[in-house]
Amino acid sequence: MGPSWCWDFAEPSAMPPPPTEPSATPPHSSLACATCAERCDAAAARAIRVAAAQFARHVRPAQSVATPSPAEPSATPPHSSPEWATRRGARRLAAIARKWLEDPASGTPAISTLPPASEELSSMVMAGARVSLAERGRVVCSLRVRAALTDAQGRWHAGAIAAAVDNMCSAVAFTVEGAPTATVQYSLSFFSPAHPDEEVEMEGRVVSRKGKLTSAAVEVRKKESGELVAIGRQWITRLAPAWPAKSNKSSKL
Questions:
Q1: CATH T-level fold of 84-238
Q2: Distance CA 128, CA 239 (A)
Q3: In sequence order, what DSSP letters do the residues of the chain get, joined into one string?
Q4: Is it the case that residue 56 has pLDDT exceeding 60?
Q5: C-alpha 122: how far from its chain's center?
Q6: Do 132 and 141 touch, CB atoms closer than 8 A?
Q7: Residue-wise pLDDT tens digits, 68-92
Q8: pLDDT tens across 141-192, in order?
Q9: For the chain, is the Cβ count within 10 Å smaller at the N or the C terminus?
């Protein structure tokens, strides 16, 4: 008998499987494949988010640098503005007051109308004076009491104190007025004596201005202890400039 007789009596498990019919649905479009693709996409998205979070913790994001806008050209140059001119004028007046207090005989007609030869008293009472601060409306000056300027009891002479305070009032008023001044009213109060070789500090301030009058006050203290020696107060008025005006050739006088 032929080989077909063996197949007829063979066990069902030994028989070869029947050929499968081709599926009408492609293998990659089946429901299982779609579910697997969704899971893969979700896992990939989670991995991307985790990596981005780790990167953000270890890497500082770059900060945006704002580009400065170009400055607009100023219509007024900085050194020709009114404020700058005012500050420059105030510094110039303070420098003149400083120079005059430290050396009254230097010839500063802007403060004193007296000629340099007539400043002997101011030079005597202000000898050795040093100005530590000079600004608009305030002047601080220190000096050491000289033995030649003491009275019979060996104390700083009241007249020397009055002259020194008068000089301080003229100097501090000049920082505001910018012209020579004359004293209209003067009061001086004494509190404690100062002795030779003691260093005193005088601080002058412009207190107020009323019309053509300027009020100035000066405190005199012992520099080491701060003890008050005297307080002077003055009302001052502005005078015409010390330098002569231009002559009028057409005048008949």
A1: Thiol Ester Dehydrase; Chain A (3.10.129)
A2: 28
A3: --THHHHHTS-GGGSPPPPPPPPSS-GGGSHHHHHHHHHHHHHHHHHHHHHHHHHHHHSPPPPPPPPPPPPPPPSS-GGGSHHHHHHHHHHHHHHHHHHHHH-GGG--TTT--S-GGG-HHHHHHTTT-EEEEEETTEEEEEEE--GGGB-TTSSB-HHHHHHHHHHHHHHHHHHHH-S-EEEEEEEEEE-S---TT-EEEEEEEEEEEETTEEEEEEEEEETTT--EEEEEEEEEEE---SSPPPP-TT---
A4: yes
A5: 37
A6: yes
A7: 566 565 555 555 566 767 788 888 9
A8: 999 999 999 999 999 999 999 999 999 999 999 999 888 888 999 999 999 9
A9: C
Q: What angle do CA 145, 148, 150 make, to 5 degrees?
A: 65
What was the pLDDT predicted at 244? 45
pLDDT score of 187: 96
